[in-house]
């Protein structure tokens, strides 16, 4: 019977360079993951603002539909000024709408929001504008975004 001898190779484990290369690769991956998470959170905020603007515009349209008797009082409404020509119900609607738009961001408001109602060719135009950070390749820019709802009441 012939016996085969297996030689033991010199294996002492990883070297310091392999550990450092692995550390750099993991670090770059984690930085990329953190950046992706940051952009994701920013886009979630922007989509939340657009959703709230849509809801508040439809809310005002429904308030105007339920008060057709005083519909003309809503013309020219601007949330930055008091609606002196509005009747009691219209004034309450405008005050509630203004409070919804301008409340704190944690409570469901929009940043620097302004709402307006105008009449154009017999159609009511409900417009809400707010500040939003838009991401570009060169970085973030603060823009004024707006949502306009045109309804026939």
What does it look like?
- This protein is an alpha+beta fold.
- It has a domain at 51-151.
- 43% of the residues lie in helices and 24% in strands.
- It contains two helices and four strands; from the N terminus they run H-E-H-E-E-E.
- The chain has helices spanning 16-66, 88-102; strands at 77-78, 114-120, 123-136, 139-151.
- Strands 1-2-3-4 form a four-stranded antiparallel sheet.
- It is rod-shaped, with a radius of gyration of 30 Å.
- The termini are far apart.
- 18% of the residues are buried.
- The mean pLDDT is 85.
- Could you tell me how far the N terminus lies from the C terminus, measured between alpha carbons in angstroms? 103 Å
Order of helices and strands: HEHEEE
Give the averaged pLDDT, no decimals: 85
Overall geometric form: rod-shaped
H/I helix tally? 2
Structure class: alpha+beta
The total of beta strands comes to 4
Q: Report strand order across the widest sheet.
A: 1-2-3-4
Task: Note the beta-strand portion.
Answer: 15-25%
The largest sheet is:
4 strands, antiparallel
Radius of gyration: 30 Å
In percent, how helical is the residue content? Answer: 40-55%
Q: Spans of 5+ residues with little confidence (pLDDT < 50)?
A: none
């Amino acid at each position: 019977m012939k016996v085969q001898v297996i030689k033991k190779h010199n294996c002492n484990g990883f070297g310091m360079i392999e550990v450092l290369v692995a550390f750099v690769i993991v670090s770059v991956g984690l930085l990329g993951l953190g950046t992706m998470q940051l952009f994701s959170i920013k886009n979630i905020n922007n989509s939340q603002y657009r959703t709230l603007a849509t809801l508040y515009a439809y809310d005002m349209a429904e308030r105007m539909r339920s008060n057709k008797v005083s519909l003309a009082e809503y013309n020219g409404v601007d949330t930055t000024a008091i609606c002196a020509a509005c009747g009691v119900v219209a004034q309450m609607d405008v005050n509630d709408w203004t409070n919804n738009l301008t409340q704190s961001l944690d409570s469901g408001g929009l940043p620097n929001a302004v709402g307006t109602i105008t009449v154009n060719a017999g159609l009511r135009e409900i417009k809400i504008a707010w500040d939003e950070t838009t991401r570009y390749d060169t970085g973030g820019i603060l823009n004024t975004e707006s949502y306009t709802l045109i309804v026939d009441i």
